[in-house]
Design brief:
This protein has a domain of 302 residues: Glycosyltransferase, CATH 1.50.10. Helix content is 38%, strand content 12%. The protein contains 12 helices and 12 strands. α5 packs parallel to α7.
């Protein structure tokens, strides 16, 4: 619970509590549209976000709202309304992951503060959590997210058997796979063979380190083999894809269209870095160097080691020097083009066709996407359209050529890309 408490100070909690006082007598808030079923930006989830904030205020030690009866009654009313109304999104993730995790955190906060909600209400809410899909048939970050909800439920019900299952499922994605998840080249793929080193790869990192930190020093602790894989992915792949505190736009998937999607300066102050140290204290020095760059206390070039990595499973090139980063995104019949699902990244039609991310500071492309001419992305050869063309296939479109690849000696390398897309045929070669 400490990680939830750490996200807000007393002033922020007071401001939130005061702004939530307009709750209706039935436990709803007048400004939330509970009939909204949008796949993204789903309005009803704000109800659970507010309940979590109120539960944090109620449970946080030594704050003015600790044990406040008015807040307790508001939380109970809000939970009862949610159970009766049962808002649903067209996106399964909102229903089975976001909703279930929020309910779990609220119930945990209340039980940890001796503010248990009425037994009959808690019972039906736990029952509702159980109706969500289980982690067993899922892969990668989605499996992990569902397993975390199982951990919450195991803690609420004090169920050791369920905890064993939950932790086992949570740690299962920390292995090489040819399906979705961590690849043998240390890239990350989700939604078939789609490059997701950030986006779902970041969810994988934060979730796995979070669970590992929770169970460190217990019988559920992460084993050394899996810890090595997890550390290698963070320190050798994810952190090298950062330039200063900013991510390569090629690695965000459809999230490229979200405001500040490339800005990762906040991760150093969030739970991830704390969880890494809690899990493996031997990484303190390496993490401190990354922190200096990410927070901007040191320039993006600080202690950067020259390297060249070709991710043969992901069709991606990472070329790093102290002075700059030069990264190339391609796609083949073996990999999937950048998606545009849930009405995001609608204009990213040619994004994987040799896109080049050349940066020195790291923030050169931050929030540029609304102003981009999307058929003229750096490095891409494409048809010249008068107006931007929307992706015709939202999910799972594979590349169209075989001759795509690269070589490397770890410092220098070459990348080739044969393109045949949207009536444009090109053969490209880049030497580093």
């Amino acid at each position: 619970m400490k990680e939830i408490f750490d996200k807000s100070n007393d002033v922020q909690l007071t401001k939130a509590v005061l702004s939530f006082k307009n709750i209706n007598s039935d436990g709803s808030w007048p400004e939330i549209n509970y009939d909204d079923n949008s796949a993204s930006n789903w309005a009803p989830i704000r109800h659970l976000e507010r309940l979590q904030t109120l539960a944090s205020a109620f449970a946080k030690p030594n704050n003015v709202y600790k044990g406040n009866d008015e807040i307790y009654q508001t939380i109970v009313k809000g939970l009862h309304f949610w159970y009766v109304k049962n808002p649903r999104s067209t996106n399964w993730w909102q229903n089975d992951i976001a909703t279930t995790q929020y309910l779990g955190r609220v119930l945990l906060l209340m039980s940890a503060s001796e503010g248990n909600i009425p037994e009959d209400l808690q019972k039906v809410l736990i029952g509702r959590m159980q109706t969500a899909q289980g982690p067993f048939t899922f892969t990668g970050a989605n499996k992990l997210d569902i397993a975390i909800a199982y951990i919450y439920r195991a803690l609420i019900t004090n169920n050791d058997k369920l905890m064993n299952i939950a932790v086992m499922e949570a740690f299962q994605p920390i292995e090489f796979t040819t399906a979705e998840g961590l690849q043998h080249d240390y890239s990350y793929q989700q939604h078939k063979e789609q490059l997701m080193i950030s986006a779902y790869g970041y969810v994988f990192l934060t979730g796995e380190y979070q669970v590992a930190a929770w169970v460190a020093g217990t019988k559920y602790a992460l084993d050394n083999q899996k810890l090595t894989l997890l550390n290698n992915y963070f320190f050798n792949t994810y952190s090298n894809a950062l330039r200063g505190g900013y991510m390569d736009y090629n690695l965000e998937g459809r999230g490229i269209s979200r405001p500040k999607a490339l800005d990762k300066t906040r991760i150093a102050d969030g739970g991830l870095f704390k969880d890494i140290l809690q899990t493996d204290k031997t990484k303190k020095e390496a993490l401190n160097i990354i922190t200096e760059r990410v927070t901007g206390k040191k320039p993006a070039s600080f202690d950067v080691k020259p390297l060249h990595i070709y991710f043969w499973k992901g069709d991606y090139t990472l070329h790093v020097r102290p002075e700059y980063s030069f990264n190339v995104r391609t796609v083949s019949k073996r990999t999937v083009r950048t998606e545009s699902g849930n009405k995001e990244n609608l204009l990213g039609t040619v994004l994987p066709d040799g896109s080049v991310n050349l940066t020195r500071r790291g923030n050169e492309y931050l929030n540029i996407m609304p102003a981009w001419e999307w058929d003229k992305i750096p490095g891409v050869t494409a048809r010249d359209y008068d107006t931007a063309v929307i992706l015709k296939k939202q999910w799972g479109e594979y590349g169209s050529t075989d001759f795509v690849g690269g070589v490397t000696d770890s410092l220098y390398g070459a990348t080739v890309y044969e393109q045949d897309y949207d009536d444009v045929k090109v053969k490209k070669h880049i030497s580093f």
